[in-house]
Design a protein that fits this description.
CATH topology: Spore Coat Polysaccharide Biosynthesis Protein SpsA, Chain A
Largest sheet: 7 strands, mixed
Distance between the termini: 26 Å
CATH architecture: Alpha-Beta Complex
Strand order of the largest sheet: 5-4-1-6-8-7-9
Structural class: alpha/beta
Shape: globular
Number of domains: 1
Number of helices: 7
Radius of gyration: 16 Å
Number of strands: 9
Oligomer: single chain
CATH superfamily: Spore Coat Polysaccharide Biosynthesis Protein SpsA, Chain A
Mean pLDDT: 89
Strand content: 15-25%
Length: 217
């Protein structure tokens, strides 16, 4: 899919604390000699009309290799999880790409995302008649890999404002409330949504193994 004005805005999610990786900045963690962020950009850029990075902390750390990439922090303090990053992306798209109907989200630690991701998400959503579509593979749903209408930003902001505990901020629950279709990659090998959460998974990915753990989000 070639990027055009009708393509979604791509939002790379890197706003977490990476506790299982010892607090390392996963966006700058290298795989095959390249930062995970560079791999995510390479996967999403051909499928999107614009790209932004959701990351907290000092954005200057990305200036050396990614100076042209907008960096947007969570709009709510406290590291509230991927819903906060999603809201940041929806708000950015509404402000800077007013003609964009959707954003597509991809965690930065998912470096093998398929080249037809947006096309498959769009097809799944259209077939099911739902506003949202997420990716699935190997019996797992990857809620952080999804296609999200920009018009849901206010609803998401209200959900986050009303939440008083972590279980009320679960991405899968908010998606289910609106209706979510699945773009199922079933038994694709290697798993296109294998993600890197631990040093062991990083080592496995470096070794070219397909067994990096995939986690339902």
């Amino acid at each position: 899919m070639s990027a055009d004005a009708g393509a979604p805005v791509g939002v790379i999610l890197a706003g977490g604390l990476a506790r299982r990786m010892g607090g390392v900045d996963k966006a700058l963690l290298r795989l095959g000699g390249r930062p995970l962020l560079a791999l995510a950009i390479a996967r999403l850029r051909p499928q999107t009309s614009a790209l932004v990075l959701n990351a907290n902390g000092d954005p200057a750390r990305f200036a050396a290799g990614f100076a042209t990439l907008p960096v947007i922090a969570d709009p709510i303090a406290g590291y509230l999880g991927p819903l906060a990053g999603l809201l940041a992306g929806l708000r950015w798209a509404a402000r800077h790409r007013p003609h964009a109907r959707d954003i597509v989200s991809l965690p930065v630690d998912t470096p093998f995302a398929p080249a037809d991701l947006v096309t498959r998400l769009q097809a799944a959503r259209e077939a099911a008649g739902t506003p949202i579509a997420c990716a699935a593979s190997h019996g797992r749903v990857h809620h952080a890999v999804g296609l999200w209408p920009v018009h849901l930003a206010d609803d998401l902001a209200a959900t986050l404002a009303a939440a008083t505990e972590p279980r009320q901020r679960r991405l899968r629950d908010w998606a289910a409330r609106h209706g979510v279709a699945l773009a199922d990659y079933a038994d694709a090998v290697p798993d296109p949504f294998a993600n890197i959460n631990t040093p062991a998974e990083h080592a496995a990915a470096e070794a070219g193994q397909s067994g990096a753990h995939t986690k339902s989000r």
